[in-house]
């Protein structure tokens, strides 16, 4: 199933053909247009829509026959390779930052926690979309268990994969972090998440574009500002390719 997203409409108008998320902002003109469009969308959404509203959910009959892989397919780090070889039996997710009780949780512990399953549409910045079924732990549950501070304004996701030696990272604000459809997914289409799709867990924040859906999540950090995180714009593509931090759709 192919759908047209806000970004793909902009890209189509400009006649830009892209092969990957890392190539979409090579044109300064395109970058400027996307920036203006997303700023307008952000301000409009905050004024006239409820960011707590649910993203559309679908049925198994709507599942896409093919769900493309984007970004990295296989983290190169030795630690990740060792975890993969052991079936992620010794892997642990770290939850820290502005919390009262930092956590380290195994994959088995995450899978034994209360779960949410949802069938949603993934909209990529490249202009393609796909519908998949995801099962995972609500992020809000983990943040509450860790005792997240009232001073926390953002949640940063630190990942195992890298681009040119820089580990991938992304962030969302507390509205999206506590949203019921924001989950750490370990299962896709009723199968364990594949390595190419981000095993052992990936973020699903369903009301934002695909580059916000961080794969290979290793650490979750609650912070009061984004200024001290690498380039200060909240994510790898935001810092390196001019993407907008808020990618709501």
UniProtKB/TrEMBL annotation:
Pfam families xrefs: Oxidored_molyb
Oxidoreductase molybdopterin-binding domain ranges (all copies): 89-224
InterPro entries: OxRdtase_Mopterin-bd_dom, OxRdtase_Mopterin-bd_sf
The organism's place on the tree of life at top rank: Bacteria
SUPFAM superfamilies: Oxidoreductase molybdopterin-binding domain (SSF56524)
Name of the protein: Oxidoreductase, molybdopterin binding protein
Species the sequence originates in: Novosphingobium aromaticivorans (strain ATCC 700278 / DSM 12444 / CCUG 56034 / CIP 105152 / NBRC 16084 / F199)
